[in-house]
Amino acid sequence: MAKSDSPQPVSWTRTYFRDVFNSGELLWNLTQREVRGKYKRTALGQLWSLANPIAAIIVYTFIFSVVFQVPAQVGDPSGLDNYALWLVCGLLPWLFFQSTITQGVRSIVDNSSLVQKVYFPRLVLPLSLTGAGVVNWSFEMVVLVIALSLLGAFVLPWLPMVALFMLVLAVFAAGLAMILAIANVFFRDLAYLLTVILQFWFYLTPILYPISLVDTQSDRWGGLLGTPVTLGDIYRLNPMEPYVSIFRDLLYHNTWPDPAAVIAALLWALGTFALGLFYFTKTEKRLAELI
Predict the structure, then answer these.
(1) What are the tens digits of pLDDT across the range 97-134?
(2) What is the pTM of this model?
(3) Whether 1 contacts 95, CB under 8 Å
(4) Which of 56, 73, 81, 284 is the most exposed place for a label (fewest CB within 10 A)?
(5) Which of 235, 225, 170, 163 is nearest to 31 (CA)?
(6) CA-to-CA dists, residue 159 to 33, 54, 64, 185, angstroms
(7) Cα 102 from Cα 130, distance rounded (Å)
């Protein structure tokens, strides 16, 4: 009985990744379509991408800074003492992440006619949405950097690190979007369930409040269920916690991020992206039938 020279799955996977690599122009065109089409024929155009962050900042600043009087965090060593700026340094990464996965989860189902008619690596669909999100996020970050600089932060030397971790967060968001996009083909309610999950996830991420408040409650309560595990330890299992911490350290505090947060962010990004690639390559050939 003749033996095959190489296993078929390995051969197909190799071919698939070659197709993805050769689809750079398609990925670029789809990304441009997302960026230009979103605000097409509007008077303000790309400026509308600032509307949601600005509205959220106004509402959350009033509620948490004025009504509940959450103390503003003093930047160390930047010296900044502004709740709104502290908030937006953590809020913009979250809004990018939220937008990427809420659009990415529907990327295959919404393009079902295209998937069924012509072959192309379906991986470019969630990746193009991630790319479009990065473009909008970059525009928002430019405005934030200008505001921080005008109010005394020395943020310019940290911009290369900011750009690097924007890429790391994009890798994490893209990996999760890939997983959710495939899962949504099998379970169409997922896109609606995700909006509910994200509401809980947002408030359980220390964006509106500093994680030091969580640590204070942990010290008051002690270990959970008689164990040495504290509420702060549970909070730090949240994949978005290290990203929020890193961007605040770089942009608001103007200091090196905590090495533990950097390691956690890298592990979440690489692990999630690898899992997304595996899930995609495993299901790719059946997508046209499943839709």
Answers:
(1) 999 999 999 988 888 777 777 777 788 889 999 999 99
(2) 0.87
(3) no
(4) 81
(5) 170
(6) 28, 22, 28, 39
(7) 11
